[in-house]
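I need you to check the entry underneath: sequence plus fold tokens. Let me know what the token row says about the fold.

>
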Amino acid sequence: MKLQQLKYIWEISRNNLNVSATAKSLYTSQPGVSKQVRLLEDELGVEIFARSGKHLSRVTPAGESIIELAAQVLRLTENIKQVAQEHSDESRGSLSIATTHTQARYALPPVISNFTQTYPEVALHMQQGTPRQIAHMVSEGQADFAIATESLELFSDLVLMPCYRWNRCVLVPRDHPLASETTLSLASLAKYPIVTYVFGFTGRSQLDDAFYAEGLNPNVVLTAADADVIKTYVRLGMGVGIVADMAVDRELDTDLVALDASHLFASSTTKIGIRRGTFMRGFMYDFLQGFASHLDRDLVDAALAAGPRNEQDLFDKIELPTF
């Protein structure tokens, strides 16, 4: 059994059983991949993949268990490399962050600026997607940290660490009737078409829950994953915008009025998700504490070591900051 063979079967499973795509992603030949898979199956005495003619049709029950174990071996191998790199040079390496547009555009810039100044030889990679997509990236080892508000809890192999709370605001043009209201209400807000986040993005579920609890049915006419897109359509007069308060640029959005909505909707919590078993390098700890000051090395280590049902107990007594 070779490490290369384990990598091949893992990559085939990730590429929807497409051997050609797997070979391309690994910069090798399709016949070479197929041959190594066959050799591994012969050695183990079981089929990992069922076949229909020359094509792989599905993963066998035995194959599912083998591929999962192969993934664990590959992660441990990566950890061994990380340990060696940490001891050979603590200030060099790479860090991959998967996050949403709101975090990348509004929360992360000062953190990343400070980090790159402290660690100029660490290559920083940022990937954007839906909360479910970025959680999947970290779960599959394609990124180190997932930063989001929604959906991270759907992945049981991620350790979730709360970072900060945030509230919402309502954005309207300066001549809009709501702009003159002293205290905004859900009833008055429900009278107008609404432009806000796609469900599953940036605390959208709390928004819907608040309206329904009051027996109101919001008229959501347009949804987007990007707060800047929402602001664009508010400017076009399509509706009032509901966005994270952090997404308002007090210098660039002067044509819009931001109305406090913290009394209307429950606050949301942004979290960082880390795959269990991840080897944490020194600069990774520093990035976490730069993003959320309470996430010091001791607390992070304790959370990574705790079981899935106990990790959140570590954060119960921590007063999270509000962004």
Q: What stands out?
A: The mean pLDDT is 88.
